[in-house]
Amino acid sequence: MPRSRNSGNVARARQLRQHMSLPEVLLWQELRKQSEVKFRRQHPLGPYVLDFYCAAAKLCIEIDGIAHDMGNSAERDASRDEWLREKGVTVLRIAATEVLRSPHEVAEAVMRSCLR
């Protein structure tokens, strides 16, 4: 049976969980401490793998490092965001520098977004 694109994303998501960036690790540590809302990290959804996803709020959190400012990344991000919006998912993009500066404050802001 041919392998679907989504099954490839599941394997890719597992691999990404093993190699998270420092800002992703710091935010994940903060998000795990709270109990109001549950998050998934490196969550496959359609053709994409989301940095963090809150199913209850249908909220995707993307940590954007410097790579998002290079090449055609802005176009790819816009296309991805549009696809997610069509599926009813809100995308919250956060600069990696903000997470590095204050992971606790970023996690609190994410929680406020989820609980609206």
TrEMBL record:
Q: Does the keyword rRNA processing apply?
A: no
For this protein, the record's Pfam families field holds: DUF559
What SUPFAM superfamilies does the entry give? Restriction endonuclease-like (SSF52980)
Please list the GO terms describing molecular function: endonuclease activity
What InterPro entries does the entry give?
DUF559, Endonuclease_DUF559_bact, Restrct_endonuc-II-like
Per UniProt, the keywords (alphabetical) are: Endonuclease, Hydrolase, Nuclease
- Residue intervals of the DUF559 domain: 11-113
> Its domain of life?
Bacteria
Q: What is this protein called?
A: Endonuclease domain-containing protein
